[in-house]
Design goal:
By secondary structure, the chain is mainly α. It has two domains: 184 residues, no CATH class; 106 residues, no CATH class. It contains 14 helices and no strands.
Length: 365
């Protein structure tokens, strides 16, 4: 049953029916927890898929509510372009892919009346689901290391790279930049370990980390933002050079290669513009950012917008969406305290202390 639900959920995701995908995958989570128990590492794959669907739902709702400045939308456009650059990889990574990324004819204006009420719940739930998957994957890597299962370990590390990448994006959305830096750095470390060569996998990871450093309130993080943008640019430039040497500058009759080179050059141009922006004196950049925010919100602060979106982030009583009440009863047992118990008793402590999704990070004591 769980396998059928996962297949249906992935199909809905590929069609960009993210609400449907999240509802179906919530049922799949319920099914695997019922079968395996809530602390089984075998549940991690389904939790990751569910978390991906929830992230898309939450991001769509935040856009509908008018979140983000013009510069934020430019950054998103750059990320989208970077992820679409068709850079061939020497090996196939075993991460999840939603087959048949079909164009959807969905009506942008046909919104669920409950959408605004539930928006903040999806970001909170997305964080909790992905962090739970992280715990289980880390538990799995320990068992694989003990068994000497190198192939299985590599596959699990790819999935952990995905988990940390998505956790970083959730933190970016919530303006928890310190946590975003931590998670995106961890994702990049996994990707550098697992992937050799110059591809969109690494360039996109560098770019996202640069965004986290750029928006950090700590001005000392600015050099890191610049350094990571430069890494992203150099990665794509090296790819372009290798492809041109391999196929020739004209690459006649090789439409796919020509498109990859063209898109790569466009991406370099976009990132060089971002680099020039970061190299501006801090005061001029802050002034422009304030202008963008005022133009977007009519004077409302960015913090107010985020608080409106994630106002109930501390209320973790529900770990699934309202439409799946049966799944909610099952998954609610996987609370933060339960996951902490699993983490402390069954696997070594994570090298990174986790922070709950909040507008402002918690302080100990």
């Amino acid at each position: 049953m769980a396998e059928q639900l996962v297949a249906q959920g992935c199909k809905a995701f590929a069609l960009k029916k993210y609400d449907d995908a999240a509802d179906i995958l919530a049922q799949a989570v319920e099914a695997v927890i019922k079968t395996n128990g809530e602390d089984s590492a075998d549940n991690a794959d389904t939790l990751l898929l569910y978390g991906k669907a929830l992230f898309e739902v939450a991001r769509q709702k935040s856009q509908v509510l008018g979140g983000g400045s013009p510069s934020d939308h430019e950054d998103e456009a750059a990320q989208d372009s970077l992820s679409k650059v068709a850079l061939p990889d020497s090996t196939q990574d075993p991460r999840f892919h939603f087959e048949g990324d079909v164009e959807s004819n969905e009506d942008e204006n046909d919104e669920d009346p409950e959408q605004e009420d539930n928006g903040e719940e999806d970001f909170t739930l997305c964080w909790e689901t992905l962090d739970y998957a992280r715990v289980l994957y880390e538990k799995k890597t320990d068992h694989q290391q003990l068994k000497g299962d190198n192939e299985g370990l590599k596959a699990t590390k790819w999935k952990l790279a995905d988990v940390f990448d998505l956790l970083g994006e959730v933190s970016l959305e919530s303006e928890n930049f310190e946590q975003a830096i931590t998670d995106l750095q961890k994702s990049l470390e996994f990707k550098k370990e697992l992937h050799s060569g110059h591809s969109n996998i690494l360039s996109e990871a560098y770019f996202k980390l640069a965004l986290a450093y750029e928006h950090s309130p700590n001005e000392a993080d600015r050099p890191e933002a610049i350094a990571n943008i430069e890494h992203a640019i150099n990665t794509v430039k090296t790819f372009i050079k290798l492809e041109e040497e391999k196929h020739g500058l004209d690459a006649k009759g090789k439409d796919k290669e020509v498109q990859a080179i063209t898109e790569g050059k466009e991406m370099v141009t976009m990132m060089e513009q971002k680099l020039a922006e970061l190299q501006q004196p801090p005061d001029s950049k802050v002034t422009q950012t304030l202008r963008d925010l005022l133009a977007q919100s009519g004077g409302a602060s960015l913090r107010e917008g985020v608080e409106a979106l994630i106002g109930s982030a501390n209320d973790l009583s529900g770990l699934v969406r309202k439409k799946t009440e049966t799944a909610k009863e099952v998954v609610e047992n996987a609370t933060l305290s339960k996951r902490k118990e699993i983490e402390e008793q069954e696997i070594p402590a994570s090298p990174t202390k986790r922070v709950r999704l909040e507008t402002v990070p918690e302080k100990d004591g």
